[in-house]
Every structure is written in structure tokens, then in C-alpha cells.
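As a warm-up, study this chain.
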Amino acid sequence: MEYMNSSLKAVFFDAGETLLAPHPSHHELFAMVLDDHGHAVSPQTVQDTFAGMAPTFAAVMDRMAVKSWSISREASLEFWGRIYGEALERLGVPDPDRRLFQALYERYTRYESYRLFPECIPTLGAIRDAGLVVGLISNFEEWLEGMLIEMEVAHLFDLMVISGKEGIEKPDPAIFHLALDRSGIAAEHSIYVGDHPRLDVEAAQAVGMGAVLIDRKGHHPQFEGHRIDALDGLLTLLDLGGSGSDA
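Now compare it with the structure written out below.
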């Protein structure tokens, strides 16, 4: 990659589907909550239902014309209420008093409902050991920082810029500029790693940063830029060692 070895000074990361994800999976959590409330729906049926709504989280946002979802609890409740409400309707599961929505929302805001990807901590550690600044820029509710502390990974970040705390969401250039200003590093000496071509890659490039797409599930096979399928692929891409794959 053109930034290594002397030009690159900072690597910034997205959070959801980049560093961590729902555990055991989004679809299994959803099915578990329904089962707890007397509705036997398989995880595969849940997965198929969400796939019918849109293939990715960002695509759901686009279809629903959502401009922001994580900048406040109110915005989060409204957004997830619309998504879960549509999913329940498609599944034929009634929720007249919104108790199911409240149970789903509560489950998805528990720290224990998420896990780091196994290569996350070794990769972040290797990047820090190389003398690079490590930062986080994420569209996520404000409780993300507490969860990362609980996961014992927060100490690996020199700075965190979380939309729920800052009131700014990607792809707004302001969230990237805020992180760069706090790091003291110019955009041209930084790269951003995230899982969405528009919200992450194009948005970072628009402010002058380099960008890498992490495409764990193969949603973007036609993407033509730097692409990895697991986080440790970044180490190979940056010539820091490692055996992950990249494209």
C-alpha cells in the first residue's frame, strides 16, 4: 500500500462488523427474544426476512431514507422501532403494545450481546507496536465506549470518536475531521477501515484519507479498491506481517 512505510501515521477503524458484531449472531438474538415471548421463529427465517428487507444495514437506512440513527436515544428508538416493526410484520408476529420491540431493543443494547472478532485485539496490538496512532470513528450509540472498556480493548485506541457522543454521523465529513484534529495527524497520513463502500470508504476518501473495505461476508465483490475479508488482512496490506487475505 502506498502509505507504508514512512508516510502512514494513523489507522482509524469503524466498529460494527469491523471490530465486533452481535453474538451469536443478529438473527439468533432476534429469534431468541421472540422465543422468550412465545413465538417460535427460526434464526434462518429471521435471516431470510431481513435479507428481504435489504441485504445490508446501510441499505435498510437508504431504503427508509434515514439520515441519522445513533446521535441520540430518541433517534435510535425511532430507527430501530421502524426496522423491528417491519421485520415483525413480515414474520407475522403481532406486537400491539410494543413489548417485543422493547425486549429486542433491550437485548441489542446489552454488552454481552456482542463479541469482538477473534483477530481484532492481535491486529490492533500489531498496529500500535508499529508506532502508529490507532483511532475509532463509529456510527454507534454512546454506550459503545463502555462496551469496549468492558471488552478490554478500549486501551488499544488513542482516541475514539463515536457518533452517539458527538452528534455527528458518517458520511458527514465533520466526524472524520474531528478525529483527525484530535489525533493531530493529517488526512493524507491516515487510513480508515470500515465495512461499507459509501459510508466508510468513499466518506473517508472524500476528506483525503486512504481507505480499506473489510468485506467479511462478501457483500461487495465488485469493489475495486483495497479490500480485506478479515481484520488481520490489514497487516499484510500495510506490510506489517500477518497472513490475512486481501484484494
